[in-house]
Amino acid sequence: MVEMQVAGIALDAKNNMPIIILRDRRGDRVLPIWVGLYEAQAILFALEGISPSRPLTHDLLKSVVENLRSEVVKVVINALRDNTYFAQITLGLNGKSVEVDSRPSDAIALALRTSTPIYVLDPVLNSSVMPTDPIDDNEVRLFKEKLKDLTVSDLD
Question: What architecture does CATH give domain 2-155?
Fold first, then answer.
């Protein structure tokens, strides 16, 4: 199991889909995870310290966990099946560990809000696929701006 950090969000040039880029602490290993626009926006808000006027789902989940006197212990991206990543959120509750199945994007968004470590199992890292077309810094900047201003009507 390798501890990872969110290195940033990129845009897949082929299909215009956001990619969360996880990188190990030394920068040797990278895991790209394709996500939807809203998921990328939730992660970007956490990375950029943006507070929306009303709580997003991940802010609500953080509040529920804290109000139940629980804590998010770790997030583990634990499987890749049929090009879909899977994750588990481990909660500490009353001295016990509780494992909750999650999409990686939701687990990462919660981890960023709770300063919780993110791990990836070695077999998942070993089977990951890197995007083939790199994007430049200007494309990343424009994409981040688009995500910050995303509304429901933009998806119609």
Answer: Roll (3.10)
